[in-house]
Structure formats: structure tokens, C-alpha cells
Automatic annotation (TrEMBL):
Residue ranges of coiled coil: none
Source species of the chain: Nocardioides ginsengisoli
Organism domain of life: Bacteria
Protein name: HutD family protein
Length: 195
């Protein structure tokens, strides 16, 4: 898919798999019998409690709002701080502790079908070029705005102002950003089929 801007107000709100919270789905790819092959969303965490178990799914979570969140993942404690991605297996037993509501950005990929690379970047205020996704057939690249109001140069050189929680789907196109803020760059790649 070519360049596309997913605006915050267009994200689809739905309950977590365990019913303990809600998420705002940005985009996903579904196929066959699985609910999704990959999925991007912003989750609203209203209070401490367990995360949904998602077997055979690799997850990357990035805290967007809130000063911190502590995850107990299979007995190991991890303190999340804003804008730093953290990767874990979806089938892990995860309990979340937070003293106030938080929002996090989630990247989920179906293990054996897709992989993800997730990188947080602070925009320096001038022009930042994000090269197109790797040449893998069917690869996708997204840039999610976590804070600030950066601009992206869209088709035909038009400057598009972005807001927090807007997400740009770049496909394999090069993206040019300007302004300040924090973004997450997500590269999605299909897993090669064994021969």
C-alpha cells in the first residue's frame, strides 16, 4: 500500500481480548484462520492488572503517556519509561502495575509469518529523512507520532501536519519529516517461507 495518513480520530476502539481494557486499532493485516498477521494499536491502560495472553504473537510496547509502567513478565520485572520500546512474547504471563492511567503504542506480529523492527526517534527540529523499508517483498513501514506536531512531506511535496497518535503508512516509500516531537518507526517484514 502506498502513502497513507491514519488520523487519531479514525482509529477503531475495541476491548482487549481479556476485557480488562480498550485499544485503538490503527491498522492490521489478517489472513486465513488467524485474527491478524500484524497489528498496530494504542492501548489505554486505566489501572493495574493483567495483559491479554496472545500465543504465538511477538509484542513490542512503547509507553506514550504516563511517567512509568512496571510489567511483570513471567516473573521478571521491567520498568517502562516513555518512548522506549520493550519486546516480549505474547504468551508470557504479564501483570501491569501503574499508579495512574497510561497509553502505550503496540506492535504485534504473528510469529513465523511476520517480524518487526521498532525504533524510537526524537526529531531534532530540522529535516529528518527516513529511508524506505527494506527491499523484502511485501514489507511495510509505519511512523507513529507519540508527541509533538511534526510535519511529513506527502505526495507531490505537500506538507502534512501530524498530531500525537497519528500514524503514517509509508509502504516502501522514503519519508521526510520536519519539526520536533517523538516518533516510533516500525518496519514490518514477512517471514521467508522455507524451501
Amino acid at each position: 500500500m502506498s502513502f497513507q495518513v491514519h488520523r487519531r480520530e479514525g482509529h477503531v476502539t475495541m476491548p482487549w481480548a481479556n476485557g480488562a481494557g480498550t485499544t485503538r486499532e490503527v491498522a492490521k493485516a489478517a489472513s486465513g484462520e488467524t485474527a491478524f498477521d500484524w497489528r498496530l494499536s494504542f492501548a489505554d491502560v486505566a489501572a493495574s492488572g493483567p495483559f491479554s495472553a496472545l500465543p504465538e504473537v511477538d509484542r513490542v510496547i512503547t509507553l506514550v503517556e504516563g511517567t512509568s509502567m512496571t510489567l511483570d513478565v513471567d516473573g521478571d520485572e521491567h520498568v517502562l519509561v516513555p518512548f522506549e520500546p520493550y519486546r516480549f512474547a505474547g504468551e508470557s504471563a504479564v501483570d501491569c502495575s501503574t499508579d495512574r492511567p497510561t497509553v502505550d503504542f503496540n506492535v504485534m506480529t504473528r510469529r513465523g509469518r511476520w517480524t518487526s523492527a521498532v525504533e524510537s526517534r526524537a526529531l531534532p527540529g530540522d529535516v529528518t529523512v527516513i529511508d524506505g523499508a527494506a527491499p523484502d517483498a511485501g514489507g511495510e513501514r509505519f511512523v507513529a507520532v507519540l508527541d509533538g506536531f511534526p510535519g511529513v512531506i506527502g505526495p507531490r511535496g505537500v506538507l502534512i501536519v501530524l498530531r500525537p497518535y497519528d500514524v503514517v503508512r509509508a509502504g516502501t516509500e522514503q519519508l521526510t519529516l520536519c519539526g520536533t516531537g517523538h516518533v516510533v518507526v516500525v518496519d514490518l517484514r514477512p517471514t521467508p517461507t522455507p524451501v
